Each structure stands twice: as C-alpha cells, then as structure tokens.
Amino acid sequence: MIDFVYSLVIADLVLPTDPGKQLLLTVALLVSLGAFGYGLMELRMVYRMYTTRTNTVASAANHPGVVELKGTVRIESDSLRAPFTDTECVVYKYEIEELRRDDGGSNWETIDAGDERVPFRIEDDTGSVLVEPDGARLRLDAQRVFRNRPGEEPSSTITQGLSALSSIEIGGFSIKASNDRRYTEYRLDPGESVYVLGPARSDPTVSDSAGEINAVIGRTSRQGLIERATNRVLGRSPFLLADGTEQAALSRVVRRSLFGLTSGTIILATVLIVFSI
Question: 124: closest CA among 185, 70, 194?
C-alpha cells in the first residue's frame, strides 16, 4: 500500500527511509485524497442541483427518478422534539463540541453528534407528497447555539436534552464540564421552507386523501449498505434535504465542496514541501 501511495508522488520527492516517517507520509497522502474525494462528491451534488429541473409536487408521481421540489414542511403523522430547545420538528441534528487547549493553541473538538428523522410531507400549491428522509444528506442551517463556560451548569433544556439522547452514555459524560462546551442544534420545523433533491417513486398506498400525491420521495428500504455506499460514490440517485431556499442550500453545498478541495490541496502541498527539502 505504501509503495502504491509513493507512486502517486512526483519523481523528485525525497522519500523517507524511516518507517515512522513513511507511515506519516502515507497517512497524509490518504487524508489528502479523502478530502479531494469529499470535495468532488459535493461538487457533483452542485452540478445535479444546477442541472435538475424543478418539479411541482403534483408531478412527482409522474416523474420516476430524481426530482427537485420546493415547498413547506407538513407533519405526516409523527413529529420529534429537538434536544436543546424542545422545539417540534421532523428532522433534527445536533453537535456537542468541547474547547481543547494545548501548547499549539486551542480548537473545538466534537465529542458527540447525531440526528433523528421522521417521514413528513412537502407541500406546494399543487398538493403534498410524502418524504422519507432516511439516507438523505442533511444541509441544515444552525438554528441555535448554546455555550457554557467551565464549571457552569447548562440550561435546563440542555440538561434534559442530554438525558434524552440515547447516543450519550450519561454515566461517563460529565454534564458539568471542566472545559468550555458548545451545543449546536439544526432543525427542519413544520411550516418551514424546504428544498428536496431526491429519488421519487409512485406508491398508490401512501394516501387516499384529496391533495396528497400517491408518491414517495426517498430511497427504497430494499437497498443494502453496500448498494447505498456505491450509489453515493458513483453519484447515482442523489438525495439532499435542506431548509430554506434552493439558493441557501446550494451555497452550503458549494462551501463544503470548496472546503474539501482546498483542504486536500493544502495537505498535499505541505507534504510535497516537507518531503522535498
């Protein structure tokens, strides 16, 4: 594997003979390639957003394949309570970060993150259609950010939210932090504007009510993990869910693409400079 990675480097690069430095070089190159790959996948999503024509909700049942919809969120049957604000929503994502300090400075490190989703409807002037958000890439704007200083007690809503999050082992998680902590919440709320780019399929069983389209936006449950991963890498059947306007969603995806491509370039350039000296 190391020899293969070395073959990707320019000929006049001074290759290290020390095994530890060889491993460091290999890891750096792989991280660079990973960042490039992420940036290219996001760039491909930008292309799909630009080239996919916007559909009305009513036409979703007649256009199997990838559709682009804009509308407002409507609860289907169930809803969620956001962890840090207790706000009713259909999708939420959260992130808990802790400020870590060392001799090189300080940085925010994610110590826990997760999301939860329930099916909902997207509605426009032509009707509403069911969205099954599992498997979608979430591009949500930060709704609320809380921060508590060292030794401070978090607000009651944060404490209740931490207790309710199943992904956190409360027994080993100190709520009264010794370091700064930052709690960020992202949500998709009922009545909020939503942008969806995803696969549509006709399904006459989802509703028999007037104004509700017999179709579903989302990936089928028959897809296995390997198939879903392959489709994502190859750019097949993209599935994106964002709050706000199409322009706002596009801006977030563009920023992620630029971040990945720029990070990959900086890491690769650093490797070439360090090991060519």
Answer: 70
* Three-state secondary structure of 35-88: HHHHHHHHHHHHHHHHHCCECCHHHHHHCCEEEEEEEEEEECCCCEECCCCCCE
Run of H or E including 144: strand 142-148
Condensed to tens digits (0 to 9), the pLDDT of residues 56-91 reads: 888 877 777 888 899 999 999 889 998 888 889 999
Q: Is the dihedral of CA 104, 108, 114, 115 positive or negative?
A: negative
Vertex 227 angle, CA 62 and 122, to 5° = 35
Note whether 132 and 217 are within 8 A (CB): yes
Instruction: Check residue 171 and report its DSSP letter.
Output: G
Q: Whole-angstrom Cα distance, residue 16 to residue 19?
A: 8
| pLDDT for res 2 | 46
The structure tokens 């559709």 sit at 67
pTM summary value: 0.72
Mean pLDDT of the chain: 76
What is the rounded CA–CA span in Å between residue 197 and residue 185?
23
Is the predicted pLDDT of residue 220 greater than 90, yes or no?
no
Whether 86 and 77 have beta carbons less than 8 Å apart is answered as no
> Among the residues of the chain, which ranges form H helices?
2-6, 19-51, 156-164, 225-234, 246-274
